[in-house]
Write a structure and sequence with these properties.
The protein is globular, with a radius of gyration of 24 Å. The chain is mainly α. The longest helix has 37 residues. The two termini are 16 Å apart. Helices cover 70% and strands 6% of the residues. Helix 16 crosses helix 17 and helix 17 packs across helix 18.
């Protein structure tokens, strides 16, 4: 991995892509410290206690890189875009017109992406309104006025700025994906979580539980090793190609394999599940009534209902996203079209059924693995009164994004330097 990163700086084109990615992430982190207009910077320090790592606001603040507790321009983070993506992907299953668009290839995907952008703006607008009134209630509790006297022009000014910040982040993420290295949205979440690591290390070191201080590095190392081991695990399906005539030439047959990863969905199910489980407590915090606050506390991170719900959603989204990214019927048709077959399995429908059976067997342990990594460290840490920065969800996202980015970097290097990878 380190060799790949060092080799990347020897290629001018990759250096430009890395520099562009770093510049966009630096701009993202800069916006996290620019307060929204109409916000009292001095008073906002008094409400920071509401954003502890053990509640949903602390979780959302972690995903926004600390922007939410400052009510900065990027306070909403990238979560509205992720929520919009979840909604559109679910709608493609139940809405026939969206399903047809998804099957139209690149043109249909562009239309779905456009719908996702519009929905992101709408969600960011309503979330901004909720956060304005939430911070006002926090200010009333602490006796400090965060947003001052609420008037319609002031509310609209803050809401428009927060919505524009979320839209800008969506655009920056797409720019990173197109012109940089890696997936822009995932890298932004990675940068948000990584920015909290120094604070998490400080709180870990100052934790009064000395047993936890000693055991935490070993727990973290074991989780990291397990994540890397499973993320790289794959089932290789042998594929044989027969000799066939193409024009006036006869192509020789050969053998290769079809790699099926244990966790084909990556970290996407964890991000989706975390976004959905954060929704009920967020609504409870925004309503700010006794019943709503009790409901928010019931589904707060580190609670048993939250962990159970997160595991269930992770399993569901793992199957869903795997089915979206890998279609056994299409794979079987492609193999048949190019003269490929799996030894011992007839081409066509039997091949599709065989791949579907293998994929189902692989997806189930992969889903359980994602749920275990996301939940078990959180449960252990909640028993030792540690903070949330070392939660399994955060570690899984950071490691998963890092591995995917390095793989894309290696693919870029392979296109420009074959010899170094064939030796």
């Amino acid at each position: 991995m380190l060799r790949s990163i060092l080799n990347a700086f020897s290629v001018a084109d990759i250096r430009k892509k890395l520099a562009f990615t770093a510049a966009m992430l630096a701009l993202y982190r800069l916006g996290a410290y620019i307060p929204s207009p109409g916000v009292n910077i001095d008073a906002i320090q008094g409400v920071s206690s509401n954003f502890g790592g053990s509640n949903v606001l602390g979780f959302l603040n972690l995903f926004s890189g600390g922007s939410l507790e400052r009510l900065s321009l990027f306070a909403l983070g990238i979560m509205p875009y992720i929520t919009a993506s979840i909604i559109l992907q679910l709608l493609t299953v139940v809405v026939p017109s969206l399903e047809r668009l998804q099957k139209e290839g690149e043109v249909g995907q562009q239309k779905i992406t456009q719908y996702t952008r519009y929905l992101t703006v709408v969600l960011a607008f309503f979330e901004s309104i909720g956060y304005v009134f939430l911070f006002r209630s926090f200010g009333n509790e602490t006796g400090s006025s965060v947003v001052g006297q609420l008037t319609f022009p002031k509310v609209m000014l803050i809401v428009i700025c927060l919505t524009a910040g979320a839209t800008l982040l969506m655009w920056l993420g797409e720019l990173i994906t197109q012109r940089g290295i890696g997936n822009g949205i995932s890298l932004m979440i990675f940068a948000s979580i990584a920015s909290s690591i120094p604070s998490g290390i400080t709180k870990w070191w100052n934790n009064p539980d000395q047993v936890f201080v000693v055991m935490m590095p070993f727990i973290a190392l074991a989780v990291i090793v397990a994540i890397v081991f499973v993320q790289e695990g794959q089932r290789r399906i042998p594929v044989q190609y027969a000799k066939r005539v193409v024009g006036r030439k006869m192509t020789s047959g050969g053998s290769t394999y079809l790699p099926l990863r244990v966790n084909m969905a990556g970290v996407i199910p964890v991000i989706f599940a975390a976004s959905i489980m954060a929704f009920p407590p967020t609504v409870g915090q925004l309503l700010n009534t006794p019943a709503a606050l009790d409901f928010a506390e019931f589904f707060s991170p580190n609670s048993v209902p939250y962990v159970i719900g997160e595991i269930l959603f992770i399993i569901v989204f793992t199957y869903f996203y795997t089915a979206v990214t890998f279609n056994p019927v299409d794979q079987a048709d492609n193999l048949k079209r190019y003269g490929g077959f799996i030894p011992g399995v007839r081409p066509g429908r039997p091949t599709a059924e065989y791949l579907d059976r293998i994929l189902s067997r692989l997806t189930f342990p992969g889903a359980l693995y994602l749920g275990a990594v996301a939940a078990l460290p959180t449960i252990l840490i909640s028993q030792t009164s540690a903070n949330f920065y070392f939660g399994g969800t955060s570690i899984l996202i950071v490691i998963g994004v890092a591995l995917d980015t390095v793989k894309q970097l290696e693919a870029q290097l392979m296109m420009r330097n074959y010899e170094g990878f064939l030796k």
